[in-house]
Write a structure and sequence with these properties.
Elements: H1 12-34, H2 42-49, H3 53-64, H4 68-72, H5 78-94, H6 104-121, H7 125-133, H8 140-143, H9 145-159, E1 161-174, E2 182-196, E3 203-209, H10 225-232, E4 234-235, E5 247-252, E6 255-260, E7 271-277, E8 283-284, E9 293-300, E10 304-314, E11 327-333, E12 350-353, E13 357-360, H11 362-366, H12 374-384, E14 392-402, E15 406-413
Parallel strand pairs: 1-10
Antiparallel strand pairs: 1-2, 2-7, 2-8, 3-6, 4-7, 5-6, 9-15, 10-14, 11-12, 11-15, 13-14
Helix pairs in contact: 1-6, 2-3, 5-6
Length: 421
């Protein structure tokens, strides 16, 4: 995982917040232990000291959390921490113990130092949570889920639609035109629980650009973007609750979209859409002078509660044995289009890597708890490249509360072309 921050230097704000947090945690643990309380038990803290369960849980979480980034996201306000100190002092007095023996003065000093640092670098608890959530790039996806959930809810209203579950898949297979240096790529898209929120509003579903080489130049083998767009996103009417007349295919220069026309709003009018496709354009199979990677960008245009991205390869290809280990999936801000080419973590649009990844095979296709009909969808896409789900290997990544527009870039390292004898 590539760090979001400069790995050679930690910011002054991060250093001071981590140090102040560590001191408060140390003093909290010491005070709890002197009262013969298990620092990890919120229930015990609440019962003995008479503080509310929320405060007790926060104190126990901080006492047992080694990560300052995680602990600071649950840090109570100054009044809450003072309530803990007062409860400890009151409890000691009731038991006939000198409160001074608990070292509450040291705890108060640590809290005052922490509050001063928070005021300097964050200003409030909400900003503190934002700062802490981004310190460890390996944890960004998990720690920002709650923040994405709030953004998802706001975007549903602003963008006019929402999706409960969105499945986006690609299948790499042998060339369909007999070119041993190219790979065909079938695709499938399934959207369940599509709900319109705004009346008379047209919603973008999919985005497609002309393909590019790694050096950023356009691949001239796609002469007509209109044809390319319709080849990749063909409605599977028998798996959908809408017909072709509910969709618009729009091209603007080198960019294009599939959009859902206005319709009835609300949950009673929820839709289900399924697409498969096989563009005539085929991807490079081996490393060449202009291509070292195979990168596929999947753009999420509608706020989606659960986004699933599948990446599969036909086992007829020898490189399928190293397929999974050759993959990397990363999220980018797509508000200004796709990231730089080739996409990389140093791009300012980079958000985080997708780390919630699982193997994908027949068992998932046949009985997918996330999206009913995955088996039919994958089978139809696989049929386009002359294979079956049983012949596919790959992985699925998962993202909760995908905001829009967000681009998931699948990066596959291209193998070297075998030496011909």
């Amino acid at each position: 995982m590539t760090s979001l921050a400069n790995p050679a230097a930690t910011s002054l704000a991060q250093q001071e917040l981590q140090q102040a947090y560590g001191t408060v945690k140390q003093e909290l643990v010491r005070v709890l232990q002197l009262q013969q309380l298990d620092p990890r038990s919120g229930a015990a803290i609440a019962q003995r000291l008479g503080v509310n369960r929320q405060l007790a849980w926060q104190v126990a979480t901080i006492a047992s959390e080694p990560s300052a980034a995680a602990g600071l996201t649950v840090m109570p306000g100054a009044r809450g921490l003072e309530m803990f100190v007062e409860a400890s002092q009151r409890g000691a007095t009731q038991r006939g113990v000198d409160p001074a023996s608990l070292g509450l003065r040291e705890l108060r000093a640590a809290i005052e130092r922490l509050e001063a640092v928070i005021t300097t670098h964050a200003g409030d608890r909400a900003t503190l949570a934002l700062l802490a959530a981004t310190w460890d790039s390996a944890e960004v996806e998990r720690r920002t889920e709650d923040l994405r959930r709030d953004a998802y809810r706001a975007q549903c209203a602003l963008l006019g639609a929402r999706v409960e579950t969105q499945v986006r898949g690609v299948i790499f297979a042998p060339s369909q035109v007999g070119d041993p240096t190219r790979l065909a790529m079938a695709s499938y898209q399934g959207l369940a629980g599509v709900t319109r929120i705004r009346a008379a509003h047209r919603s973008r579903l999919f985005y497609l650009e002309l393909p590019k080489h790694d050096d950023g130049t356009m691949d001239s083998s796609v002469p007509d973007l209109h044809v390319h767009l319709r080849e990749k996103f063909q409605l599977e009417a028998s798996l959908s609750t809408v017909g072709p007349d509910a969709l618009d295919y729009i091209v603007d220069g080198h960019r294009s979209w599939v959009t859902l026309k206005p319709g009835q709003i609300g949950s009673a009018a929820r839709e289900r859409l399924a697409f498969t496709g096989l563009p005539g354009y085929e991807n490079p199979r081996y490393i060449s002078g202009r291509d070292h990677l195979n990168q596929v960008a999947i753009v999420c245009h509608i706020p989606t509660e659960t986004l699933l991205v599948d990446c599969l390869m036909d086992q007829r290809l020898p490189e399928s044995r190293e397929f999974v280990s050759s993959l990397l999936m990363q999220c980018y801000d797509a508000s200004t289009g796709h990231p730089m080419s080739p996409a990389m973590a140093t791009d300012p649009a980079f958000l985080f890597e997708l780390t919630d990844v699982e193997p994908l095979g027949m068992a998932t296709f046949q009985a997918d708890p996330n999206f009913t009909g995955t088996g039919d969808l994958v089978a139809r896409a696989a049929q386009r490249v002359g294979t079956t789900p049983a012949n596919l290997v790959g992985i699925r990544c998962r993202l909760r509360y995908a905001t829009a527009p967000m681009s998931v870039v699948i990066t596959r390292r291209l193998p070297s072309e075998p030496t011909r004898v």
